[in-house]
Amino acid sequence: MITFEEAFKIVKDAIKTIEIEQIPFLNSLNRISAEDVKSDIDMPPFNKSAVDGYACKADDTDKLLEIIETVQAGQTPVKEIKKGQCTQIMTGAPVPKGADTVIMVEYTEILNKKIKILRKQSKTNISYKAEDVKIGQTVLKKGTLIKPQHIAVMASVGYTNVSVYKQVKVGVISTGDELVEPAEKPGISQIRNSNGHQLIAQLKQISAIPAYYGIAKDTFDDTFKIVSKALSENDLIILSGGVSVGEFDFVPEVLKKAGIQILFDSIAVTPGKPTTFGTSDSKFCFGLPGNPVSSFVQFELLAKPFLYGMCGYNYTAPEIKLPLAKEFTRKKTERKAFIPVNIQNGEIYPIEYHGSGHIHSLVTADGLIAFPIGKNILKQGELIDVRQI
């Protein structure tokens, strides 16, 4: 049995990035950029007005000013500003030559077809050429997880075909004779298969491509047949169940026969002690415990960073440090424990949690907190890192 930190390092060290493809930028949401994106223009491309108002010389703001022109966004000024003159200008329009400030319309009034400035302002209200971005400047770095704001940035620099890492193909397999699919009503000694569908949803959330291979029976031959097929058709497979030490938990042996080298099969962590990870020359495998909280948590802790890493993204789970609302204790301290919690009024509340089979405990969870090995008490008011989920 190894520590969680050792398991995490093994997983990270095993990452191999996947191939690259080009796709339309509008289809790139939640994908990972595979090259730097550079601007093909200065932004703004010209000195432009940041407000609706009057462009003039700053030295003339104590005079009545003659309006010589009106310029809207998208138009080009024709006339140069001279002393005693101004141009009525709209937000986004180019500032005319000769002007060095734009007076907000709210600070003016019209007197006899001239403009009187009612109050001074400290800003020029001009967005200067290239003050945001210079031509050739990198606006998105390689390895960026593309969000809606990044789509806007790509549009602004004309980057309409984006290089991204391909989506990882993942085979999902559930194991166990006790399992039936969700549409079936369980008989005696049966339960519905929640893990397989939970994992599919977790994979879709990070833009992987899941392929579901159903429930493998508790026989070596059936499990080997499904595992072999899934390995041949995907970059990575994830199994749930069959990785403990029971008589029918033979997944590790199946994986070895399928050409997977097991790098670890036991972690000093709860939930998820029997989590397994292995590799071959070009394929990868996670064997997750059959209990649904264990499979959910270990996917978040280990599989998600690995899958993102295959796409060139250095994933770090969002964390927030908050005080514990009340003291929390545990009896066994030989494993690192991850506990589901709520956040209420800026404080952490551990959720009632009946063990790794209690998937309903995660329904209202805002995140997970960690109990280090050897520690049996977290005190009220202690600042704790909450790993958000």
In CATH, the topology of the largest domain is named Molybdenum Cofactor Biosythetic Enzyme, Chain A
DSSP strand tally: 28
Domain tally:
4
Bulk shape:
elongated
CATH architecture of the largest domain: 3-Layer(aba) Sandwich
Side-by-side strand order of the widest sheet: 7-4-6-5-9-8
Low-pLDDT windows of residues: none
> What portion of the residues fall into strands of 2 or more residues?
25-35%
CATH superfamily of the largest domain: MoaB/Mog-like domain
Q: Using only CA atoms, what is the Rg?
A: 30 Å
CATH class of the largest domain: Alpha Beta
Continuous helix count: 6
> Ends: how far apart?
26 Å
Summarize model confidence as the mean pLDDT. Answer: 93
Work out the helicity level: 10-25%
Structural class: alpha+beta
> How many strands, what sense, and barrel or not for the largest sheet?
6 strands, mixed
Topology:
Elements: H1 4-13, E1 20-24, E2 37-38, E3 48-49, E4 53-56, E5 65-71, E6 85-89, E7 101-104, E8 108-111, E9 114-117, E10 126-127, E11 138-140, H2 148-156, E12 161-165, E13 169-175, E14 179-180, E15 191-192, H3 195-205, E16 209-216, H4 220-233, E17 236-240, H5 251-257, E18 261-264, E19 269-270, E20 276-279, E21 284-288, H6 292-310, E22 319-323, E23 328-329, E24 336-344, E25 347-350, E26 367-371, E27 377-378, E28 383-388
Helix pairs in contact: 1-6, 3-6, 4-5
Characterization of the model:
The protein is α+β, with helices and mostly antiparallel strands. It contains six helices and 28 strands. The protein has helices at residues 4-13, 148-156, 195-205, 220-233, 251-257, 292-310, and strands spanning 20-24, 37-38, 48-49, 53-56, 65-71, 85-89, 101-104, 108-111, 114-117, 126-127, 138-140, 161-165, 169-175, 179-180, 191-192, 209-216, 236-240, 261-264, 269-270, 276-279, 284-288, 319-323, 328-329, 336-344, 347-350, 367-371, 377-378, 383-388. The strands form eight sheets. The protein has a six-stranded mixed β-sheet with strand order 7-4-6-5-9-8, with no helix packed on it. The longest helix has 19 residues, at 292-310. It is elongated and about 95 Å long.
